[in-house]
Amino acid sequence: MIRNNEKRKETILGIFLLLLLLAVMTFIDAKLPSYHIAIKVIKKASVYALVAVSMNLLNGFTGLFSLGQAGFMLLGAYTYAVLSIPVGKRAGVYQYFDGGWIQFSIPEFFSEHLGETFGLNMGIIIALLLGGLVAAFFAYLIGLPVLRLKSDYLAIATLGFAEILRAFFQWKKLGPLTNGSNLLKSYPDFGSATGYIVLIGIFIALIVLLVNSTYGRAFKAIRDDEIAAEAMGINLAKHKRMAFIISSFFAGIGGGMLAMYMGTLQALSFKSTMTYEILLVVVMGGIGSITGSVITSFLYIASMEWLLRGLDSGTFLGINAPGLFKNGFRMAVVSLIIMVVVLFFSKGIMGDREFSVKGLIRLFGGKKAKENAGGDGNV
Amino acid sequence: MSENPILRLENVTMQFGGVVAVNNLSLHVNPGEIVALIGPNGAGKTTAFNCITGVYQPTNGIVEFEGKPIVVAHPEGKMKKLYAGENAELYMSRHPIDPTPDKITKLGIARTFQNIRLWKSMTVFDNVLTAKHMLAKQNVFSATLRLARAEDKQMAEETEALLAEQDLLKYRDDLATSLPYGLQRRLEIARALATKPKLLLLDEPAAGMNPQETQELGEFVAQIKEKYGLSILLIEHHMDFVMNFSDRIYAIDFGKLICSGTPDVIANDQRVIDAYLGVSEDE
Fold it and tell me: What does the pLDDT read at residue A366?
């Protein structure tokens, strides 16, 4: 009975917190103009959160050290952009390739049939999901040979794949599809940061549900001890492939949303540095902690794009020192912060723990505050 | 041998490069029996286990489970020239079967490990629950969307029952690796039982236990054998354990079977005493 009561309390508080978040987001959206830095930070950070969580699913929960995230994001981004550019604007975008091969736009099609706003948003979501599916399909193909490799070798193979993909997308012969090395632009966007938060919240919730399901436990078993996992009837090849495909699916969606956030798309921006950036978020948040990844992406993006900007442009925290605070100083400070975090939190900010409503109740209830919050992950 | 054995090894040979770790080993386990495999260190006992469970593909020989061949091998490739064992020509015409360990486990053979291999980051409860994954019918979508609640509930209940039986329920939410050594062994057995096996392979279950604990473990093994209708094949060094609790014993040395029979026969066999009992154990 007591247990049930506590569960109910948690659920109510969880729903309350979600509604509060939603209200705050709507408020921010209504008050701030869409070019405001806070909106941009929220959009980019939420996209990074999704990709970091998808990478955590693979690297943190299944123990497969893959560095192909940028490649799968690229696939998702291009699929989304190519399928979403309005037909009328294709001639302008594909000016060197006679308007390109594809002459339809999913969001445009839906907005014609299902109403302006609703149809457009539905179309965007469907195009994003298709981007995820394309990434997942490629993950399946690449997984066949690559998943036989272990640890560092897997990392090198996936990294190589991502690099090849980036070069391939800039190939002139593919121009009518990918616009070669030119920009893709004019595709639609949600406009509001709330849209990003809600959509990405749903995707991350799905990953949390997966991680806490019997399949998630099988993934963790593979990470902890492959030989024992196999001896307990867990098919290694099948489950590794599954984790790889699911992770790539969400990375693809993340890529599509990143393209949406950036407004213009170029294969050049999906360099391996992007993968490392996400890996950094995963490691600093805690390998095996979903909430760690989410919190860290917001902290990381907020400080990189916003809070520490002053270090590059002369004035920081009201201190005006143009001699010291000039281009490049921000990166020096960020590196220092990273080193400090790694030194003092060797397992990342959250370790492999999760932030949960249960933990929050405990924290404010004051009882057993020292005990760590269990893996409910009810954010 | 009137009844059909549940497990039968026929001329199983495992050769690593030039080293013959298991040489022409034939043995069987009848339903409901506790059979022990003994031998000095490095005799090839664990290698024999690994050949049964699919960790290694043997170089030659057949493993049958419930009358059906589950592993079939004959020397191939480089091994054709290198092969130093016997009976190579016997299985040349047979098509090799080389299953992965998970397939063997799905057939109903579960095992424990000599060096305990629990999942370190998981709780006691999750360790056993995860072993039930193999039996789950839900797919990844229904699992994510929690559509198979009835099955989830059933898995959790069965896990609780197994833990209760092993006196581990009070450690339910502790990390598996935080348990004392003896309890970790028990947990490994519980985990193996969670896959609902017909045959249980125990690799040195009493390693590191004192005589009191060993005695308790033996009684416990006999008890779960009855309760779950298991057959058990075990590797053990504790002679009192082996002598008291096994129905039959196979003794191997340098990969070769040197003697088999009831505990009395083994205890009085000069070859066994020479190879093993008299020399390395003084119990």
Answer: 54
